Amino acid sequence: MSYFVIVRGPLGIGKSTIAKKLTKILKAKYISMDEIVDKNLVTNKPDKNGMMDVKNFIRANKLIQPITFKFFKKNKSVITDGCFYHKEQIVDIIDKLKPYKVYIFDLKASINICIERDKKRKVSIGKDATKAVYNAVSKFSVGIKIDNSKKISNEAVQEILKYLPR
To answer: What does the DSSP assignment read for the chain?
Structure first.
């Protein structure tokens, strides 16, 4: 059974670590939404909230669609991670991937936890950027909420696996 998994949440919450572990367990295809967006910017102009414009994310959705369908035809699932702070991007990706099922996991933790985790990265994004993205991501909630404030990544992965067909 093929399906698409989105692991979303603010900076420093563990999205990439969790998505990559899921990919390995499920023998799926991993696509980094950040890499696709960064390599294929349509505009560098920020939106009215100072965040990256949704046009970049809609373009990324369009670019990953053929890759995703290629893996779906092989009966493989696809996993992506990203902040997904534009609701339009999520609606667009669900629409583009019909009739396949899209599972969304919304990772949650406090802003202070995200800031502390960001500080431990090889390249920290910084407190202000972490706060800005946290606020943008927190404007809406979508999918299955996973409290990742006290979990290690393996625990979060095991919780997510309970919701996915295997």
So the answer is: --EEEEEE-STTSSHHHHHHHHHHHHT-EEEEHHHHHHHT-S---B-TTSSBPHHHHHHHHHHHHHHHHHHHHTT--EEEEE----HHHHHHHHHHTTTSEEEEEEEE--HHHHHHHHHTSSS---HHHHHHHHHHHTT---SEEEE-SS--HHHHHHHHHTTS--
